[in-house]
Amino acid sequence: MKINAMNISEKEFSIMQEIYNNHIPDQRTIASRTGISLGLTNLIIKRLLTKGYIKARQLERKKIQYILTSRGFSNKTKKSHNFTIMTISMIKQLKEKFQKLILKNYEQGIDTFEIEGTNELADIIEIAFKNLSLPNLKYSRIKNSTVDSNTVYIHASSSVKLEKRLIDAIKYLSDQVLAYC
């Protein structure tokens, strides 16, 4: 029987992860830690038991131990692997999108950039700059950014012409099409 890791829903995966991480979790703890209601947690656990991804063992009258089966562990691992591969691919796409933006501006005489932002997207933009080798290209990161954590700006200017641009990185991405793997 071929196992398809993508047939595990995100909520099922969250519960399997909690069972894996916690030695003897009860349903109330699982629900609390995953942010899933207790009733839905109960239904998902029953579904996982039926699929053979977990097994239950009675410890005491009111205490049950849930354990991942080898099949459940295999599916959890495959889903984690697929998610990691998808994330790496997305980061690569983001880096390439920003490199195209940088090159487009550079070809128009813009050679000085400042990255303003404190989140992961600002980190990816900085990686995009680090992977470009263009003469006279300068970039820096604004250390004391006052923008909120969901905002990233690229301040672009020319060292030759009196030209400045403010690029909203989030808006730029929303105008682009990213291919999901």
Q: Largest sheet at a glance?
A: 4 strands, mixed
Q: Report low-confidence residues grouped into runs of 5 or more.
A: none
How many DSSP H or I helices? 6
Structural class: alpha+beta
Compute the gyration radius: what is it?
24 Å
CATH architecture of the largest domain: 2-Layer Sandwich
Count up the domains: 2
By CATH, the topology of the largest domain is: Dihydrodipicolinate Reductase, domain 2
The CATH class assignment of the largest domain is Alpha Beta
* Mean pLDDT over the full residue set: 87
- Quote the beta fraction: 15-25%
Strand order of the largest sheet: 4-3-5-6
What separation lies between the terminal Cα atoms?
25 Å
Helix content: 40-55%
- Morphology: elongated
Number of E-type strands: 6
- What's the order of the H and E elements? HHHEEHEHEEEH
Outline of this structure?
With 181 residues, the protein is of the alpha+beta class. It has helices at residues 10-21, 27-34, 38-51, 70-107, 120-130, 169-175, and strands spanning 54-60, 63-68, 112-116, 138-141, 153-157, 164-168.
What is this structure's SSE topology?
Blueprint: H1 10-21, H2 27-34, H3 38-51, E1 54-60, E2 63-68, H4 70-107, E3 112-116, H5 120-130, E4 138-141, E5 153-157, E6 164-168, H6 169-175
Parallel strand pairs: 3-4
Antiparallel strand pairs: 1-2, 3-5, 5-6
Question: Would you kindly provide a written description of the structure presented here, covering whatever features stand out?
Answer:
This protein has helices at 10-21, 27-34, 38-51, 70-107, 120-130, 169-175; strands spanning 54-60, 63-68, 112-116, 138-141, 153-157, 164-168. The two termini are 25 Å apart. The model has no long low-confidence stretch (mean pLDDT 87). The radius of gyration is 24 Å and the shape is elongated. The strands form two sheets. A four-stranded mixed beta sheet has the order 4-3-5-6. A two-stranded antiparallel sheet has the order 1-2. It folds into two domains: 5-68, Orthogonal Bundle (Arc Repressor Mutant, subunit A); 88-175, Dihydrodipicolinate Reductase, domain 2 (2-Layer Sandwich), CATH 3.30.360. A hairpin with a 6-residue loop joins strand 5 (153-157) and strand 6. The longest helix has 38 residues, at 70-107. It is α+β, with helices and mostly antiparallel strands.
